[in-house]
Here is the input.
Amino acid sequence: MLYVDIPTPAEIVALNKVRTKACVTIYVRTTPVTQHVEVARIEFGNLAREARRQLEAADHDKREVAAIMEQLEELEQDRSYWAVQANSLAVFATAEQLRTFRLANRLDSSVQVADRFHIKPLLRAITFPHSAFILALSANGVRLIEVHADLPPKEVKVDDMPESAAEFLKDFEGADRWERAKIKSLEERNVRLQQYARSVDAALRSVLVGRDTPLILAATGRLEAVFRAVNSYPNLLKEGIEGSPDRKSESELAQAARPILDAYYARKIEEAKELYATRANEGRATSDLSDAARAATFGVIHTLLVDIDSTTSGRIDEVTGALTFGEEDDPTCYVLVDEIAGRALEHGAKVLAVRKEALPQGGELAAILRYAP
Here is the structure.
């Protein structure tokens, strides 16, 4: 597996629920090339020292500051950890704990100190991770390949994966012509291919269970249809890679997968925009920050699109959802769409972090509601 830790929605919800006087959030641009990662490690150290400056300027408890800085400095000095990075690193620290995520997305370096974590960049990571698994399947063999943006693809070892269809077809292929005459050739072959495909599907579960990562099928002929018929993974994309995968390298398969992923993400946004338009006509959609804050607090949001670049600050009442706007440099304030997105996720909403131009009515968010308020 590659050195990427894409957070699940549940993990983002857990981070968003953290409330303490001193929460430090650091994002730093990294590189998967170990020889060049020292620059990122040094930048992280500079950001950690900026976090100390902000903590001391806000007059936080000295023991809490020391506990946070001890964890950040230990991470900075852990060269074995820095040797295995992706394109960005997200670090979330309090006096009690430190969490990290290595991300395929290229995020801008930043540091924030507040009473909660800055999670919006993580939303982009789960909305458009540009990650996928490719199942290269043929009668001659099967490979599962993991693909991430700007990282080299890598084959994933899957326990109990059959080597090829040969072990399922051997009786059929090995029969003499008199025995073959007794077999309904096409029907028998299809049965054996179904057994092969079902065995592949069963082996994949150990890797794919609980994931939302798209799976792209690279297969041809009868085997493609057979696998799709027995597949149990809900995130197998309808569009696959054409042509036999046998002679395609991992890099060639990854290159063929990227336009499929781009189209998949574009469809997700268009489907959300179309649903927003439909629900708006029914009084079940809003682009107003105050209305969305209340809806998120009470679990009314079904799907939420947020502007990844929004910086509007303020506070949202924990109980009523009432919104108060504030200044960006006010330490008691935070980015409002961060908090709205976190509350929406907590209640099971689907959250998509997009560019402003992708929002159906401009603004900073678009919320599709479960029912009319």
